[in-house]
Amino acid sequence: MKYVVLFEDNPETDVTVRLSYLPLHLKFLQRNAKKIAAAGDLSDTQNNGAGGLWVMNAEDEDEVVRYVREDPFWPTGLRKSFRIMKWSQTLTETLDSKIPSPKYA
After folding, report:
1. pLDDT of amino acid 105
2. 52 close to 39: Cβ distance less than 8 angstroms
3. What pLDDT, in 10s, does the model give residues 61-90?
4. Which is nearest to 8 in space by CA: 68, 63, 96, 64?
5. CB-based contacts of 65: which residues, under 8 Å, 6+ apart?
6. Could you tell me if 81 and 8 are in contact, meaning their C-beta atoms sit under 8 angstroms apart?
7. Spatial distance between the Cα atoms of 26 and 78, rounded to a whole number of angstroms
8. Exposure class string for 18-51: b at 16+ Cβ within 10 A, else e
9. Closest by alpha carbon to 7, among 67, 63, 62, 58?
10. Is there a contact between 61 and 38 (Cβ–Cβ < 8 Å)?
11. Cβ atoms 28, 68 nearer than 8 A
């Protein structure tokens, strides 16, 4: 089953936390690429970091929660909350756009 996980960042967490744990977070995502099919930052319309998003293949919601809690970002306090939703994919599209990444530093 496909799930989407929406992460809300904790605005009270210092930006250095993200930078310190980013290499571990990226390794975690690479190691789990068969389950976490897509992942990326979310930002508001002014490019301020707001959180993140995963698209996951999982057996059930409990499995999704296990992956969220295993992510090196989770115990740092960087993430304020997360929301899990089932996703029914109806369209596959390749986007070739240059969307700027949010600024954290």
Report:
1. 47
2. yes
3. 999 999 999 999 999 999 999 999 999 988
4. 68
5. 84
6. yes
7. 15
8. beebeeebeebbeebeebbeebebebeeeeebeb
9. 67
10. no
11. no
What are the tokens at 23?
A: 């290499």
Write out the two tokens for 84.
Answer: 């899990």
> What is the reported pTM?
0.82
**Number of CB atoms found within 10 A of residue 97's CB:** 4
CA atoms within 13 A on the CB side of 79: 22
* 10 in Cβ contact with 75 (< 8 Å): no
Predicted local confidence at residue 36, as pLDDT:
97
The mean predicted confidence, pLDDT, of the chain is: 90
Distance of CA 43 to the CA centre of its chain: 12
Q: What residue ranges in 2-78 does DSSP mark as E strands?
A: 2-9, 36-43, 49-57
